[in-house]
Amino acid sequence: MPRFFKPIADGAAEFINGTRLVYPMEDQAMRFLNKIGNRFFSVLFSWLLGQRFRDTLCGTKVLSKKNYEIIAANRSYFGDFDPFGDFDLIFGAARANFKIIEVRCATAPAPTAKPTSTASATAGCCSK
After folding, report:
1. H/E element holding 102?
2. Please, where are the H alpha helices in the chain?
3. Beta strands 100-104 and 61-63: pairing type?
């Protein structure tokens, strides 16, 4: 966790986005369709915001309470469309001109095979 907190404490960043897509992942760490979707959103966000984003859907995000409150106060600008908050935080941080950096996160296969919302959404169209 120091890799995430130190840049905030040192003033090197005001918003940190975790990224799982820097190094090769272990098998089954991310489903194929999730990888494709994540790559698409990474390219789209990088183009829209003029800053490279490798992994927009990584749940690891770090920012101060003060900066979160700035994003929350301006949430009406983009609307309340993001059920998980990843896009809301990234767009909000960019709109507020925060210093944004990415920090790598390790990924591993999930310890259990619990179905995810993506699994249930694709089961009907991809199963035989």
Report:
1. strand 100-104
2. 2-10, 32-49, 65-73, 86-95, 117-126
3. unpaired
Q: Find the range with the poorest average confidence among 18-27, 57-66, 117-126.
A: 117-126
Q: Dump the DSSP string for 87-100.
A: HHHHHHHHHTT--E
Query: Tens digits of per-residue pLDDT, 28-78?
Result: 556 778 778 888 988 998 999 998 888 887 878 999 999 999 999 988 777
Instruction: Name every residue whose Cβ is closer than 8 Å to that of residue 2 and which is 6 or more positions away in sequence.
Output: none
Rounded CA-CA distance 6/11 in Å is 8
Q: In Å, how far are 18, 78, 86, 103, 119 from 61, measured between CA atoms?
A: 6, 19, 8, 9, 24
Sheet arrangement for strand 100-104:
61-63, 15-19, 100-104
Calculate Rg over the CA atoms of the chain. Answer: 16
Mean predicted confidence (pLDDT) in 114-121:
47
Residue predicted with more confidence, 13 or 42: 13
